[in-house]
Write a structure and sequence with these properties.
By secondary structure, this protein is mostly helical.
Length: 117
């Protein structure tokens, strides 16, 4: 009888973990993306250290996606941020190159993030 109760408890714990695990996976947060990329706007203003911090943050943001859904979400965050702040997309592309980073989606206000692989 005790073995049966232990088995039921173990199964219940397994079911709970299986249900909660997907919730624990890190989703792409547009707030985090925006906060990390905000410093990049200061690069053109000549703020000391801003280029190094911007490059570091671009690398961090580009490392967030773990799968296609994450890459599409990151794309959507970046495009929305760019639209909101009316950024110069060509300047963003140049900055990514200066930082040695490869952006895995087209940079521009008309980017269709659903096509990002």
């Amino acid at each position: 009888m005790a073995g049966s109760a232990t088995l039921k408890l173990a199964f219940s714990v397994f079911i709970c973990v299986a249900m909660v695990a997907p919730l624990a996976e890190a989703a792409i947060s547009c707030d985090v993306v925006g906060d990390r990329l905000a410093i990049c706007g200061k690069v053109g203003q000549g703020v000391p250290g801003s280029l190094e911090e911007c490059c570091s943050n671009i690398g961090f943001v580009l490392s967030l996606p773990q799968n296609q859904a994450d890459r599409q979400a990151l794309c959507a965050c970046v495009i929305a941020y760019g639209r909101k702040h009316n950024i110069d997309w060509a300047a963003v592309a140049r900055l990514a190159r200066v930082c040695g980073k490869t952006v895995f989606f087209p940079l521009g206000p008309d980017t269709d993030c659903s096509k990002v692989k």
